[in-house]
Design goal:
Strand content: 25-35%
CATH superfamily: Gcn5-related N-acetyltransferase (GNAT)
Number of strands: 5
Radius of gyration: 15 Å
Number of helices: 4
Largest sheet: 5 strands, mixed
CATH topology: Aminopeptidase
CATH class: Alpha Beta
Oligomer: single chain
Shape: globular
Number of domains: 1
Strand order of the largest sheet: 1-2-3-4-5
Structural class: alpha+beta
Distance between the termini: 50 Å
CATH architecture: 3-Layer(aba) Sandwich
Order of helices and strands: EHHEEEHEH
């Protein structure tokens, strides 16, 4: 049975494992990622008021994650705040079932209910599968971050 719910502190061990799986999946796109890297402050994501951190369960097992966080926008933009989407991850055996799309829809609705109309996320430019999934939901490419390693 499919269940979307808020992430809880007792989910932390599974969330840490999923975060490491995400980091390993993205490592080919960024060779500079540290061996012991972490991306998120999970405790803050679970407890901060302007954040919705969801997990997706199938038969009681967490198979997908994602959060939206209301953040202040850059001062030159028309909107004062935006929704930042992160930790968008679906375990490999559950991909292709539309879980990421359903999760994104729930996160975006939560943001809209709080007056947010603009949403951002980050994705590696080489991650064509993820880019296509986000484009299907309506995202378009915005800024490309460039790097130089000497």
């Amino acid at each position: 049975m499919l269940n979307f719910r808020d992430a809880h502190f007792n989910d932390r061990p599974k969330l840490l494992a999923l975060e490491q799986a995400l980091i390993e999946a993205e490592r080919p796109f960024n060779k500079l990622t540290k061996v012991d890297a972490t991306y998120h402050d999970l405790d803050a994501l679970i407890s901060v008021a302007d954040t919705l951190f969801l997990v997706v369960e199938i038969d009681g097992q967490i198979v997908a994650t994602g959060y939206v966080q209301i953040r202040a926008s850059k001062t030159y933009l028309q909107h004062s705040h935006h929704g930042y989407l992160g930790f968008m991850y679906v375990v490999p055996q559950c991909r292709g079932q539309g879980l990421n799309k359903k999760l994104l829809e729930k996160l975006i609705v939560w943001g809209q209910e709080r007056g947010i109309r603009d949403f951002y996320l980050e994705v590696y430019t080489q991650n064509n599968v993820a880019i296509k999934a986000y484009e299907k939901v309506g995202f378009t490419s915005s800024v490309v971050e460039m790097k130089l390693t000497l």
